Protein 1
Amino acid sequence: MPKLPSYRVRESARARRVVLRASLDDGILVVVPRGFDTHHLPSLLASHREWMEAARERLASQLRSTTPADRLPEAIHFRALAQTWTVSPVPTAARTVRARERPERRLEMSGCCDHVPSWQAALRRYVLRKGREHLRPWIAEIAAEEDLHIETLSVRCQRTRWGSCSSRGAISLNAGLLFLPPALVDYVMVHELCHTVFPNHSPAFWRLVRRVRPRALERRQELRDARALVPRWLTAASASPPSRCPEQRDAADDTGRSTTLTPRPGIRVRQLR
């Protein structure tokens, strides 16, 4: 039997079945339920060999075209807002790194800019502020236009989901949406808003999505490759421990958050993230 592409295994208490996923941060990742006998994985994954090989090649291509997560970017491109901000590092003796918008779309990064976790956390805080500023009124406008109700709304940096909606109508949006084209952001928002009516992916749910946005299925396909548009430092920051300059241990913490995929019984193959 031909050898499978290399992969990592992660055990999850929430998992109910094996989930196969690929991302720039994790490579090819297999999430298994707690206590799962990993000796069964090779036979389970054998039927997904072609998907894994294609995922490996796609990730390699994306890695060649993206800036490494530990390199301070020269510019930040918010496609959703049609804005590009030039990053201007200003090294100082400050305990942390701060990101401030300056005239002419210049983003000033002041502080210990040579400490990777510190500037990653600063950029993450900046993207979160930007997301809350722009994504909240954006989805509120769509909800008003389509007569859909939002119970509560939050914006976070998430690694695996563009958005989510609880059974109580609480919507969460990924701040990384700012890096996507407006049409894809619109689709994600409509998708989550429709979950306030149908908290599932039933045929009735998809009929509502297509009624609100007739090109929804096309956007859904486009969204599968959109993760590559999100800078790697954003998800690296969300997965990092609280950041601080190495020589200043009393610096303020910025705890990141990440989410896990909703597991179900069986085996599932995830699209590239």
Protein 2
Amino acid sequence: MRTLMCGLMLAGAAAAGECSYGNRIADLQTNAAVLGMAAAVTGVENGEASAEINPAALEGCLGRSAALDWANWQGVKMQKITAAYRLNPQAAAGVYVNAVNSGGAYGYDDNGGPVPSKYNGSMTAAGFALAQSRPLLEKYGVTSLGLAGRVITADLNNERSVSFLADIGFLARLEANDLSHLGVSIRNAGISPQYISEEIAPLALSIGVSRYFLAGEKLLAAVNAEIRPGGKYVSAAGGEYRFDLGRGAWGALRAGYTTDREKLGSGSGITAGAGILFAYLGVNYAYRPSPALGDLHLIEIRYQFSPKLNFKLSRYSKVIELQMLEKERAGVQSYKAGLERYLSADYLGAAAEFEAYLSGNNSTYRKKARQLCADSYAKLGLELFDKGEIKEAARFWNAGKALDSANASITVYLKERIAAKCDEYFLLGLGAYSSGNIEAAKKLWSDCLDLDRNYKKAVNALKRLR
């Protein structure tokens, strides 16, 4: 989900060194898992964790989740609440609200000495994100598209401003085994707050590549390149290693490096982080050192409601979604094969393909597949009826009626042809009964019920024989 937090502009008429202070608040834009990797996650399919950098990543979220991020840095307090929800196998949505209060904050002058900030106040940001996979684009390798928007309100020195920003991005697989990905996003398009430093939420084109290594995809490596207005170029690299702690728990170690010196002051560009992950609960921590601006510590608690796979199998919850998409693709192939067989009058093969499609968790052509499968059963039943295989014909027609009760042909066949055969069998049974052949009568009346379980005349006749 989108967890972007734009910082307060504490530069303005303050000392030149305070620009670094204002830019440093940009570190609060990210969650702990992302900051630990120096935010080099544009090309990472890890669900809501990296959606703040590329909204297309949100499509990888699993079920429902909520997270709380907290930091208290140089008098600036930040609280952020985020939530994500999977809408269906192809789409997910997320929302967030975060707040920053800079009362009593201070910055640093050019010599590194602390100076009180001239701009104190608060800012609140609220936003949403949507991501979806599009089957039509999958043939080109595009796995998901994402869009995010947010509203930012700032109140500094009793002056208020309202701003609107938006992001758009996509993710694409680079290998058939889905181990490597390319991500592209355009971030911070729109009207920036007049009290926000342009370096905190600059318009940016971000391109990233990621790949998983080692058995079980335990090691993730990612690189990023970002272009900003004025020809500014920023690069970053990060990685994460996950290891089994036993009893369903997993540990994570993260590290990264960024060339974004404007956010670092005189920092080295190195970031680090760690996490402990359980099936339902995750705790993440990130650290960014800066001798001039003070070290930043960011803590996150994340809760996953009813996870369907543990972290080892889910690879940030994306594996299950890939499996669902593969099943959907396989289902679409079954539907297309069924349609081809139906058009070529191979109704038995068509019905088998449509049944294969309907047996999966497929939704794209579900209604049409049920109708075509029922119609295939109707035609198969008619062929069998004309051959004298009445019971098999009735079985197909009843199966078709269960799939599509509105099928007019099946309704007519069951009411006219099967009903007529039931009447015929019943009368033959009466003749056999009248001649004293009880076993023959029982068989004929039972045949009536094989064709129509609700044929009352046969039901009552068999009751009298008991």
